[in-house]
Amino acid sequence: xxxxxxxxxxxxxxxxxxxxxxxxxxxxxxxxxxxxxxxxxxxxxxxxxxxxxxxxxxxxxxxxxxxxxxxxxxxxxxxxxxxxxxxxxxxxxxxxxxxxxxxxxxxxxxxxxxxxxxxxxxxxxxxxxxxxxxxxxxxxxxxxxxxxxxxxxxxxxxxxxxxxxxxxxxxxxxxxxxxxxxxxxxxxxxxxxxxxxxxxxxxxxxxxxxxxxxxxxxxxxxxxxxxxxxxxxxxxxxxxxxxxxxxxxxxxxxxxxxxxxxxxxxxxxxxxxxxxxxxxxxxxxxxxxxxxxxxxxxxxxxxxxxxxxxxxxxxxxxxxxxxxxxxxxxxxxxxxxxxxxxxxxxxxxxxxxxxxxxxxxxxxxxxxxxxxxxxxxxxxxxxxxxxxxxxxxxxxxxxxxxxxxxxxxxxxxxxxxxxxxxxxxxxxxxxxxxxxxxxxxxxxxxxxxxxxxxxxxxxxxxxxxxxxxxxxxxxxxxxxxxxxxxxxxxxxxxxxxxxxxxxxxxxxxxxxxxxxxxxxxxxxxxxxxxxxxxxxxxxxxxxxxxxxxxxxxxxxxxxxxxxxxxxxxxxxxxxxxxxxxxxxxxxxxxxxxxxxxxxxxxxxxxxxxxxxxxxxxxxxxxxxxxxxxxxxxxxxxxxxxxxxxxxxxxxxxxxxxxxxxxxxxxxxxxxxxxxx
Length: 676
Description:
The protein is an alpha+beta fold. The chain contains 27 helices and nine strands.
């Protein structure tokens, strides 16, 4: 039995993960491709068209296929063995060919156009859905001449193979260096106890009890911040930053081909560049706005970063007599300098951030803001034994959806943190379905008798990803295609990034911050010092993000690049580079966000969302961080609306005006903060 074809569902219409294996995907995908084709043929053959039999029918034509693909892509990132990962080479050409057949179908486009031409008289949701579907056809080549349609098809089919190739190279390269062995006591000096214990436990599991085995996917930043061995720090940073530059998993040619094909695709569709194509459907609207935004932040970020670099360099010289500080020194001496400057290391907070308590804390924040409750379920199938599932209820105890929680790293799981939708909120088969969202991280594991204790950065990651989950759970739209994940890409990070602000509030930290052994609350002085030190190296962090924005825009707003990637980045960033680079290091070759994710010509969205969230949070600060009216307004105007209206309209409904940049500059320390 194929659980996809048989449409097996369990409690709450959940995915039967335990019943699904790799062999089920291809037959199910081929089956539902055929069904989608039949549904499309029905629409094409209509004599009389209307919203119901054309637009709504099209919106649901491939819903079964979409379900299978949602499950597949989720497993590809969260629990992918070689069988799952290799399927992408067969699946992507099939689905790409189908979508090309659909969007390049002249008769179908004519049917859609007939409805679009009379859509001004529709109700708002129906009009918006019609507009979005019509635009998706136009942006997928429906207006092209036959010869250009063929070119478009060839380009998209090539891209469908290259992006997963890029992603697999990054994953394989990372896995190839992930186990980092140390056998000398002196080389682990300075490392926090939790990292050392974890490395020792891993080494014992691998049969080498006299050594330490570090996992670079989770230990990288801890090692760079605390390891006193300069040689170890250099070796690890070099391995990490050069991992896809040369060798078996080199991505240089792959990314250049992706960038060139994206440009060709944009040109065929009538745009000068891929950036122009992408930004046509973004809140920023055009390249000028993006470049202006980046440049407005670049100068103050560079000045601040230069000041910070000189301070840390001087400290390193005075402390250890270094003649010159290198990139692999900055985090280490930055940490030492911060500890001296503020008499504080955020590592002292780790014992207060037991993972289970942090999750309970973010649930508590959601309850105080939106009245949500989270009930653990034990009867839902999951993709891994560590996954926990919660039923989400509103303030009136009404069922809202499911939340799947997957917190820790595995070799079969990609790095980073993200939210997925297994099932979007909205109509299916005439009934509204509740959302099923996944909450994925790679957080510090428990070690022996010590529970999973999180760093401040990891706690921030939890709040960030949970913000995405809230967006998915609280969306309240009629049509799935207008849901949370279909909002403009430079708006999608607002719900996630704004939630991080609550971590600056003592009242919030006291909701869940408690010492895992004694139960003691976080001392007030620690919270004060944490907030005083939060702007430390803010210029450096901001400059790093802006560099990534510049790299992204450069690849997608230039003529095709055929030369050396490292040289390309050097020429691009030299003027605004403060920290010396490790020889051979490149960003582009492992920049999954833009070459295998959804952020091409859109990485600026993170900084853009910072502007939005800093400004929006100023309203919460003014009204009260748990003010019911303000929270309800944010829920009603931002979280619930999905893509039913332009994001600027939604933002103005919440704030009463367009966003301003000053709160961001103050929050990040690029200008002095206003004293209230």
